[in-house]
Amino acid sequence: MNNVNAVLFDLDGTLIDSEYFYFSNWAPILENDYGLKIDFDEWISNFAGHTLSRNVQMLNNDYKLNVDEEDMWFATRSRYAKANMKNIRLMPHAKDILDAVKDSGKELGLVTSSFQSTVETVLGEHKLLKYFKFFVTRELVENPKPNPEPYLLAVNKLMIPKEEIVVVEDTSTGCTAAKEAGLYCIAVTKQEVEKKRLTHADQVLNDLAEVKKSLLSMN
Questions:
Q1: Which long-range contacts (CB under 8 A, 24 or more apart) does 201-209 make?
Q2: pLDDT in tens, 27-41
Q3: What is the pTM of this model?
């Protein structure tokens, strides 16, 4: 792919190492309130990369639970607040890739299913907010990933042709949203279970160092 002028990054699992944080807050709720015990591998396989609404629907349909979405929203937000999102670490090479892409003259945007408050807390803690021209967060769209709406909104904000935009995602859910929006998508994950779901990605790479090399080769 040539003539790339913008890169759109996902947040959770792509730039920040947040999946264990979410697992460690969901797991006690599921066990204490619903009698469901899950481990981290099960979280990665069935929950990671999805919205709260989708996970609640899956719990009710696949696990045969009776989970109220509003109750789960308040329960998880209460635990997140106590757990302190400022402790979430960056993924390896996250700052390096943002520096390199910005220095190359490409515009950066963030497209996430997390809320603006999460973005400001975590990226603010790591002083990365300044890298992005804009943020497309959960409250700005009616239909989150895997619906293409978040990426279509990002394309409108960039006002450049889709052919000049690359997306970096870590899950099949995010990649589906990007591809259905008509965008080139690089997937980055070391999770073998996720790699098997990413056959629709244009590239599947192991870490952000590999993604940086690929992006900088796109002139």
A1: 201/169, 201/175, 202/1, 207/91, 207/92, 207/93, 208/15, 208/91, 208/92, 208/93, 208/94, 208/96, 208/97, 209/92, 209/93, 209/96, 209/97
A2: 999 999 999 999 998
A3: 0.88
